[in-house]
What we know:
Elements: E1 2-10, H1 27-38, E2 47-48, E3 57-67, H2 73-83, E4 88-96, E5 108-116, E6 130-131, H3 138-148, E7 150-153, E8 168-179, E9 182-189, H4 196-208, H5 216-223, E10 238-244
Parallel strand pairs: 3-10, 5-6
Antiparallel strand pairs: 1-3, 1-4, 2-3, 5-9, 5-10, 7-8, 8-9
Helix pairs in contact: 3-4, 3-5
Amino acid sequence: MNRYKCILSYDGSGFSGYQVQPNKRTIQSQIEAVLAIMHKGSSIKISASGRTDAGVHAKGQVIHFESPLPLVEEKWELALNSMLPEDISILSVKKVDPSFHARFDASGKEYRYFLNQSPKRDPFKRNYAYHYPYPLNVGAMKEACQYLLGTHDFSSFCSARTEVEDKVRTIETIEILQEEERFCFRFVGNGFLYNMVRILVGTLLEVGSGKREPSEIAEILEKKDRRYAGKTAPGQGLYLWKVYY
């Protein structure tokens, strides 16, 4: 039995998220269905670096699975891509040590959140960026980001529905990049809580729009209460960009 690490990308707009759900189209269910065909009906479970919500995309999601099939790495990639739907693409397949785990061995992740600031909404971008046609004070948002860097308890910036008890995480990098009417919020850290990036973006947008002062970020962190942070930004702007090992 060999263990394989796969890097994949997917357009999340046609899925109800990564994790298997009854009567829902999900990333996990699509991949496991293809693996079942390849293994003549046997169930092959996959494990991912983390889950993504409905509408959220991935450029570099990582999964692992085990298989007895005697296929070389290139054949795995070709076989999976030939049977998977067009909104999922296997970028690479690599045989790894049997102890490798896509989630527990990850040392960090990079997420990017895209914002479209054009005055009129573009129907061809609606699934891939959040349309936000309002003025933003980029300097204020960048100032606010400084309070988020480092190691903090991010209880205020995660969904109240999270089951994780330890909410301490380290954010190493936050960048706000602008190219004409397109904004990109880039986050790199050792891990992110449920809805954390989307809540961070929603809060930064409130700073950028003048509804909050940058210094309020420190107070929100101190409160450790979701009710004090901003709204959760929509899922379609979020991309799991890269997983670090």
